[in-house]
Amino acid sequence: MKQRKVLVGIAVAIFIILLLYWLLVAEDMNAWLSAMVPSTVQNLIV
Asked: Which of 4, 23, 28, 37 is most buried when burial is the number of CB atoms within 10 A of its CB?
């Protein structure tokens, strides 16, 4: 049971890190994608 709590804690930590990454980097990523990737592919991603 303890191992499950550790795994859940790790999953929550990873989720929070990804959420913060998305919130902080998403705007920069859009500008980078629009410069690097053709607009049709970007429409599929975004």
From this structure: 37
